[in-house]
């Protein structure tokens, strides 16, 4: 009988052991559980030490890899141009999820040291192969040096992992007048294209850090909205037509839609206007998958000098009438300085005010009409120093989009950000 009891209890222990194993396996396979585990691991880890340690965290898996992992293997000596093969279609340096955190004390000198292959003006090309893509990153900026430092820390290695030939442009708005994000993008487009024959332009907020290097910074056949899954929106698109944060257009896309609007002063609406322009110019919005188009936003409040624009809804309702009259073909500005810094090209620009570049009193109405007419007829044929020549006229409009769009935006506002209305 004693032998029987001990045999039964052995089986009981074996079943209990197997049962526990099953429960653990079931729990581990659930994403929610993984997040909780990550959360606890983070509590016990020394905060942000990883960012500077240079260790590869992809082995740790759960919180993403070190964006600098493997890059030190890149040769510092460029292969002779004639012998250079094209880079592979998919870069072998791509590693998927990236660990993103914002340690205090990071300096631009540290970022520079970590990116020895980046040259004057924030330019880079792969040392061992001929890049298949040339991408310019355009970042509208004022008083966000703290964010810029983090963006540069992550963006440089991120782009190097993708084996791109790239340049980073900071378009800095001079003076204290109300901020104008979209107009700065127009400046960035023209000034970057003046320098090099970029085949893709990424319009990039300074506070958004990409969290997965499979989100490749190359252009699609249609304008691409890259920041599809931001942490602040629960890694989902906030509304269907959202086009904010990070977007990518070829020069041809850009000119087809007459660039971006110049008249949105202050916060809000300009990104929606750009999204509507895409459609009005007969194109679609392309997007990466939710899994890959992930971004972490550096938390901040609304800036001084960028108050919510109360006119934005009225302006948006008129995009259909205004997009050909206001955009790349009417962007007036004065470049104050162009500095080729070690990690980026800094373009400081005066973009004037709502009253015009030098606040000249508006011309009589008749003159405005006479000027506006030809632009309305042939807006897409913008020509600039011979490089930009768009001969195609925008195709037929696909949807009666604007009214619907403005309606859904107002709904989004009411439910998400009451304080702004
Ligand atoms: N930007 C500047 N300086 C400014 C304003 C804007 O550099 O003073 C640039 C910067 O690249 C920024 C982008 O413009 O990422 C977009 O501006 P934003 O970050 O203010 O806009 P976003 O919609 O954030 O990303 C608004 C935060 C408002 C918080 C409201 C809380 N409910
Ligand atoms: C919309 C704004 C967009 C803005 C988006 C996200 O409502 O400009 O919210 O804002 N459109 C209008 O105001 C018309 S956010 O939550 O990032 O502050 O990008």
TrEMBL record:
UniProt superkingdom: Eukaryota
Regions that span the bilayer: 12-29
UniProt pathway: Protein modification; protein glycosylation
Catalytic activity line of the entry: N-acetyl-D-glucosamine + UDP-alpha-D-galactose = beta-D-galactosyl-(1->4)-N-acetyl-D-glucosamine + UDP + H(+)
A GO CC term attached to the entry: Golgi membrane
CDD domains the record matches: b4GalT
SUPFAM superfamilies according to UniProt: Nucleotide-diphospho-sugar transferases (SSF53448)
GO function term, MF aspect, one: metal ion binding
InterPro entries: Galactosyl_T, Galactosyl_T_C, Galactosyl_T_N, Nucleotide-diphossugar_trans
Main location: Golgi
Family of this protein: Belongs to the glycosyltransferase 7 family.
Descriptive protein name: Beta-1,4-galactosyltransferase
Lineage of producing organism: Eukaryota, Metazoa, Chordata, Craniata, Vertebrata
